[in-house]
Design brief:
- With about 500 residues, the protein is of the alpha/beta class.
- The strands form 3 sheets. An 8-stranded mixed beta sheet has the order 13-12-11-14-15-17-16-18, sandwiched between helices. A 7-stranded mixed beta sheet has the order 3-2-1-4-5-7-6, sandwiched between helices. Strands 8-9-10 form a 3-stranded antiparallel beta sheet.
- α8 packs parallel to α9.
Length: about 500
């Protein structure tokens, strides 16, 4: 329909992205085309689109401006021959403003062509209102065969064409005048509503300022009261602290009595497998424990305080340690002229028993904590006169590190060293490296939430024979029967390098 635009001035309302205006300018011989929109950002987009298509419009003058629809106002000085719009009637509150703008912008006898979907009846409502303003209003749904083919009429979004023809020159119809009058009244009412809202907002702001001032004053009073209470409480706390310090000083001046456990009072070891007597140092930093090991004394110095790598556990005598020491005493011939390595020795009781009660060739007592190693060296020195073993030493050994150059041992003994499952791999690496092919690993350990069972499974992949047992000593069973921490005995050996791993479990 290019002839419709020849020599015409065209105004496009609600231009949006500008496709209609740009296509019209590029494909017709219109005198001028002005694209408008009420959104400033959209106007900027339209200007950018014009720059992109510069040089494609021939003699047609194309422009963009911001236009906000209004129900009332003066007629355009230079009205347009043709108005175009697409999908601009979906908001009913703008119908009157759109019609008012169209009336003021069109020449007498000019046409307003609108194409829009029905959108829940919004188009029908617009047409009803338009017929009260424009004398000739036509609604078409068969205006173009290509559109009908591409978008079926049964589709909800099928675009309908509405053609509105402006009245000829002369007085405006009564309906138009009435519509303009109603528009003016609505504008005045909106202005009055805006003034009322502004007055209400000013009253609200005044009340809010008054409330804020009152709240600030109340907060100031509360803070002052809180500061006064804090000063009073601080004074009371200082007085109480001074009184407590005075009482503590008085208590400190009194001679302190060492605290004795029930086992110490009974002259027994913590797990009742040995006779024992204890004495505290004058500064009460350590205890000296003397164990009666079948007629021979073994002295163990135990610190009462200190920060150790494994916490307080390093200062305690475990049931597995006592069970291991008792086993060494009862089977001391197994260690004769053998090299014995003690891993994770802690206080070193089992290693000291091996030095005192056996004729081992060399007993080496080790731990990974430097502070514990210093304590082990002191305990070795305390028992040096009682050793039957040819050589007894203490040194630091961190599992899996610095193993090169160390001669293998006939026996590797340990108590409660498998409770950390993440250390099983480096422990087995150390055992494999430091044990002779004909040697034996002897361990005592409590079950500890499955850690012993986990180690037993892993050890089966390294040693040909893995033997775990609970029925190994009547004295241990009598002293600790029913205890959750009852120690199991674990023996690891290489019996046949060719055979696969074997796990033997005995009750």
């Amino acid at each position: 329909h290019r002839k419709l635009f020849e020599g015409r001035r065209v105004l496009i309302l609600g231009a949006g992205l500008g496709l209609v205006g740009i296509a019209c300018a590029a494909c017709t011989e219109a005198v001028s085309i002005e694209m408008t929109d009420g959104d400033p950002e959209v106007v900027g987009t339209l200007e950018a689109s014009l720059r992109l298509n510069e040089g494609r419009f021939g003699s047609t003058q194309v422009s963009v401006r911001h236009l906000f629809w209004s129900e009332t106002g003066e007629r355009a000085e230079d009205p347009y021959d043709l108005l175009l719009a697409a999908d601009v009637v979906y908001l009913e509150q703008f119908h009157a403003a759109l019609l008012g703008t169209a009336l003021r912008s069109l020449k007498s006898g000019g046409h307003f062509v609108l194409i829009a979907s029905k959108r829940n009846g919004s188009l029908d409502k617009f047409v009803t209102l338009a017929r009260t303003v424009f004398p000739h209003t036509t609604v078409l749904d068969d205006y173009d065969a290509d559109v009908t083919k591409a978008i079926r009429r049964s589709s909800k979004c099928f675009p309908i064409m509405v053609r509105l023809c402006s009245p000829e020159a002369g007085e405006l119809p009564e309906s138009v005048l009435r519509l303009c009058a109603e528009g003016r009244e609505r504008n005045q009412e909106r202005q009055r509503d805006a003034q009322r809202r502004e007055r209400r907002e000013e009253r609200r702001r005044t009340l809010q300022r008054e409330r804020n001032a009152t709240m600030a004053e109340c907060r100031k009073i509360r803070l002052e009261e809180a500061r006064r209470r804090a000063e009073e409480e601080a004074a009371i706390a200082a007085a109480a602290a001074a009184e407590t310090a005075a009482i503590a000083a008085a208590e400190a001046a009194k001679p302190r009595q060492p605290v004795l456990s029930h086992a110490e009072q009974a002259g027994r070891s913590d797990w009742n497998l040995f006779s024992r007597r204890c004495t505290c140092s004058e500064d009460e930093t350590y205890k000296e424990m003397v164990f009666d090991c079948r007629g021979q004394d073994v002295i163990v110095k135990k610190p009462l305080y200190g920060d150790f790598f494994h916490g307080d556990f390093a200062r305690k005598m475990s049931p597995s340690e006592e069970a291991l020491a008792l086993h060494i005493i009862k089977h001391k011939r197994q260690f004769k002229k053998k090299r014995v390595l003690v891993l994770g020795a802690g206080l070193g009781f089992a290693g000291l028993v091996a030095g005192v009660k056996t004729a081992a060739k060399h007993v080496e007592i080790t731990d990974g904590d430097d502070k514990i190693v210093s304590l082990l060296k002191e305990n070795v020195a305390l028992n040096s006169d009682a050793f039957s073993a040819k050589k007894v030493t203490a040194r630091r050994l961190f599992w899996g590190e610095g193993l090169e150059g160390i001669r293998p041992f006939d026996w590797i003994i340990a108590a409660d060293v498998v409770y950390l499952e993440d250390q099983h791999t480096v422990l087995l690496k150390t055992l494999r490296r430091l044990l002779k092919p004909s040697g034996t690993v002897l361990m005592f350990a409590s079950p500890r939430a499955g850690s012993l069972a986990a180690f037993t499974r892993v050890a089966g992949g390294v040693f040909d024979r893995v033997e775990a047992t609970t029925n190994y000593d009547k004295d241990v069973e009598a002293g600790m029967h029913g205890f959750k921490c009852f120690p199991r005995m674990l023996r690891l050996q290489w019996s046949n390098p060719v055979a696969g791993p074997a796990v033997v479990q005995r009750s």
